Amino acid sequence: MATGTDRAVGMGLVGFSLLLFTYYTIWVIILPFVDSDHVVHQYFLPREYSVILPGIAALILLLCVGTFIGVVTRKNRKPKVD
Amino acid sequence: MTKLLEWVFGVSVIGAAWALVTFDLLNLRLPVAYKEVAWPMPVYLLVVFGCYSLATVGYRVATFNDCEEASKELQDQIKEAKEDLRKKGLKM
User: Fold this and answer.
1) Can you tell me where the transmembrane regions are (chain A) (predicted)?
2) What are the angstrom distances between the C-alpha of A27 and each of A49, A51, B54, B72, B89?
3) Among A47, A52, A55, A7, which Cα is nearest to A28's?
């Protein structure tokens, strides 16, 4: 069996992705079919945010990846490479 | 037909169906709820794919078995190789 922290991290990832999937599915697919005066609507942001927030997350991810590549490239540059 | 062409064809068919519903190009006058569900679809599918990938990686990290004997065997082989190289004059 995998060691303790491995199991905890792995199961944490599974749980987090299940939560995210459930919340996002209810937001995008279920809510349009629910009456607009139902109490569940107050737990969800307006619909536009269901596209804007993943867009911002993707931008942040790209920024992180680009920064990491930049830092590693600069660190490994031999002196006077130009 | 190449694989690339097949994929491009499939994606454009699905993309055309999505655009038809989202932008109401045929004036079908679908109920508002269907249009509300359709327009975030590309982003939704991406998020679902991301969740699935994350869950798969997490699950496989959690269930990966430690191989005690293989690890010990590998350590012994490393020690052996170091000894051998040291005898042949390589400084570690």
Assistant:
1) 12-31, 51-72
2) 10, 11, 20, 51, 67
3) A47
Tokens of residue B16, six digits: 């055309």
pLDDT score at A80: 65
List the domain boundaries for chain A.
2-74
Residues with Cβ within 8 Å of residue B61, at least 6 apart in sequence = A2, A6, A9, A10, A13
Please judge whether B46 and A3 are an interchain contact, meaning their C-beta atoms are less than 8 angstroms apart: no
Contacts of B18 (CB under 8 A, 6+ apart): B38, B41, B42
The answer to whether residues A2 and A10 touch, using CB atoms and an 8 Å cutoff, is yes
Q: Does A56 touch chain B (CB under 8 A)?
A: no
pLDDT band at B65 (very low <50, low <70, confident <90, very high): confident
Residue A31 buriedness (CB in 10 A; 0-12 / 13-18 / 19+): buried
- Please list, in sequence order, all residues whose beta carbon lies within 8 angstroms of the beta carbon of residue A1, skipping any fewer than 6 positions away: A7, B65, B66
Token pair of A36, please?
């607009």
Please check the confidence at residue B85 and state whether its pLDDT lies above 60.
yes
A1 reaches B (C-beta below 8 A): yes
Residue with tokens 């490393």: B78
Say yes or no for a CB contact (<8 Å) between B54 and A29. Answer: no
